[in-house]
From TrEMBL:
Entry's EC annotation: 3.1.3.2
Identification of the protein by name: acid phosphatase
Pfam family, one: His_Phos_2
Family under the similarity heading: Belongs to the histidine acid phosphatase family.
Any one GO molecular-function label of the UniProt entry: acid phosphatase activity
Length: 418
C-alpha cells in the first residue's frame, strides 16, 4: 500500500516536472540567432624592445591565428551546431546561403576564425554544390566540403565590430580618462612598478602599455617559452611581477571601457565610452531582431524578402568587441562577472524567441566562454544580469538600451568632439 502510494507520488512528480520542459521545447519558436565571438589563439600583436622573441620567431608574424586558434573555433562551431542544428533543429544540417550571414573584422585572425568556425558548424558544407574533383578537400565522412562566405569591411570604418574604429570623440574621452583622479592615482601608486617595467622592457611603460606586456607574457607562457627572470621575480612578499602586471591590466582594461571611474565633469564614462565602443554593435543586434519580428508579423512587407529566410547572423571579432558589448549591457566587469577580457573563441549568442502561449517575442543572451583552453561546454544565460531589466522582449531591451545608442550613428557621433 505504502509502496504503491510512493510509486504513484513519484510518477506524479515526474509528470509534473516533464510537462513544462516538453511543452516549452516543442512549442516556443526560435526565430533568429546572432553570435558574437572572439578569434582563437594567436601570436602577440607586437612586443617590447628587449624581448628575445621578435616577429620572425612566430610562424606567420604578429597577431596571426595559430593552429590551436583554429581548433578552438572548430569546437565553437561544433557547439553552435549542437544547439542550433541538432537539438533545436533551427538551421538546416547543411549550409544554405539564405539562412546565414557571417561578418568579420578585417583581420587575418578574425577571418580565419570565422572560416574555422564554419568548418565545425557545417562539416558537410553543402555537398551538392562542391566540385567533385580529386584535389578538392573532403569532410571527415568523405563528402566534398564547400567554402562558406565571410564578409568584411575596412577596419577603420568598422564602427560596429571594431571598438577601436577611427573615432575622434573616443580619443577625446580617453584623454579625459588619462586626466581622471583614478588614472592619475594609479600612475602615482605604481610609479616604481612602471619604471621597473620600463627599465626591463626598453619601453616607456604607461598604465595603458601594461596591456601589451600582459598579453605578451600570457602568450609566451601559453607557448611554453622561457620568460626572463625579471618577469618571474617577486615584486613584493605577496605578488610576482607577472601577477602584478595582470592586476594592473585588469584595472586599465576597465578604464578603457569606462569602468571604475567616477563621473568626469558630469560625464558618466560607463555610458559614454561603451556607447562609442559597443553601442553600434548592440543596436545592430537589436535592429536585426526588430526587423525579424516585423517580418514575422507581416512577411509580405517590402523589406522582408531577405529577412524572412535569414535565421543566423554571426560577428567575428575581438576580446574588445565582446567587452564593449558587455559594457553596453551594463556589466560592471569587462568579462561579464570577471576582470580581464573574454578569452579566445568565447562567444555570446542572442536568441529571439516567440512565446507559444502569448504570441509575444522574448530575448535571451547566452555566454559560451572558453573552457579548459579548447572547449565550449558551458552555456550561461546572462539575460538576467543586463541592467535596466527585466528584459522581457525586444521593446524592453530597446528601451533600456537607448542610453547606449550612438545618435544619429557612431560615424557621425564620433565627429562630435569634446
Ligand atoms: C594579413 O596577412 C598578411 C600576410 O599574408 C599581412 O601582410 C597582413 O599584415 C595581415 N593583416 C592583418 C590585418 O592581419
Ligand atoms: C573639467 O572641466 C574643467 C573646467 O572646464 C577643466 O579645466 C578640466 O580639465 C576638466 N576635466 C577633465 C578631466 O576633462
Ligand atoms: C606546453 O606545455 C604543456 C604541459 O607540458 C602542454 O600540455 C602544452 O601542449 C604545451 N604547449 C605548447 C604550445 O607546446
Ligand atoms: C604587494 O603589492 C600588492 C599590489 O600593490 C599589494 O596589494 C600587496 O598588499 C603588497 N603586499 C605586501 C606584503 O606589501
Amino acid at each position: 500500500m505504502a509502496l504503491s502510494k510512493l510509486i504513484a507520488l513519484a510518477s506524479f512528480a515526474t509528470v509534473v516536472f516533464a510537462i513544462p520542459i516538453h511543452h516549452k521545447a516543442s512549442t516556443d519558436e526560435l526565430l533568429f540567432v546572432q553570435a558574437v565571438w572572439r578569434h582563437g589563439d594567436r601570436s602577440p600583436c607586437e612586443t617590447f624592445k628587449t624581448d628575445k622573441y621578435q616577429e620572425d620567431f612566430w610562424p606567420q608574424g604578429w597577431g596571426e591565428l595559430s593552429a590551436l586558434g583554429m581548433a578552438q573555433h572548430v569546437d565553437l562551431g561544433q557547439t553552435l551546431r549542437k544547439r542550433y542544428i541538432d537539438e533545436l533543429k533551427f538551421l538546416k544540417p547543411e549550409y544554405d546561403s539564405h539562412e546565414i550571414y557571417v561578418r568579420s573584422t578585417d583581420f587575418n585572425r578574425t577571418l580565419i576564425s570565422a572560416m574555422s568556425n564554419l568548418i565545425g558548424m557545417y562539416p558537410e558544407g553543402a555537398s551538392i554544390q562542391a566540385p567533385t574533383i580529386p584535389e578538392w578537400p573532403r569532410s571527415a565522412s568523405g563528402k566534398f566540403w564547400v567554402p562558406i562566405p565571410v564578409h568584411t569591411l575596412k577596419d577603420d570604418i568598422d564602427h560596429t565590430l571594431n571598438p577601436d574604429h577611427d573615432c575622434p570623440r573616443q580619443a577625446d574621452l580617453w584623454k579625459k580618462v588619462k586626466r581622471s583622479p583614478e588614472y592619475k592615482q594609479l600612475q602615482h601608486d605604481e610609479a616604481d612598478f612602471l619604471s621597473y617595467l620600463s627599465k626591463h622592457t626598453g619601453m616607456n611603460v604607461t598604465p595603458a602599455y601594461v596591456e601589451n606586456i600582459a598579453d605578451i607574457i600570457f602568450i609566451e607562457k601559453t607557448n611554453n617559452l622561457t620568460l626572463p627572470d625579471w618577469v618571474n621575480a617577486a615584486w613584493n612578499k605577496t605578488v610576482t611581477v607577472a601577477e602584478r602586471v595582470v592586476q594592473i591590466n585588469d584595472i586599465v582594461e576597465g578604464y578603457i571601457n569606462g569602468l571604475g571611474l567616477s563621473p568626469i565633469n558630469g560625464t558618466n564614462m560607463a555610458i559614454e565610452i561603451p556607447k562609442l565602443r559597443g553601442g553600434e554593435l548592440l543596436w545592430s543586434i537589436i535592429g536585426h531582431m526588430q526587423q525579424k519580428w516585423a517580418c514575422h508579423q507581416d512577411p509580405n512587407s517590402a523589406d522582408c524578402s531577405y529577412f524572412n529566410r535569414l535565421k543566423y547572423y554571426a560577428y567575428s571579432g575581438h576580446d574588445t568587441s565582446i567587452a564593449a558589448l558587455f559594457g553596453t549591457l551594463g556589466f560592471s566587469r569587462t568579462n561579464y562577472n570577471e576582470d580581464g577580457y573574454p578569452h579566445y573563441s568565447s562567444c555570446v549568442t542572442v536568441e529571439l524567441w516567440r512565446n507559444a502561449k502569448t504570441g509575444k517575442p522574448y530575448v535571451k543572451f547566452l555566454y559560451l566562454p572558453l573552457v579548459k583552453g579548447r572547449y565550449h561546454t558551458e552555456i550561461e544565460d546572462i539575460t538576467k544580469d543586463i541592467t535596466g531589466g527585466p528584459i522581457t522582449d525586444i521593446d524592453s531591451l530597446a528601451k533600456r538600451s537607448q542610453i547606449y545608442k550612438p545618435v544619429p550613428n557612431a560615424m557621425e557621433l564620433c565627429k562630435t568632439r569634446l
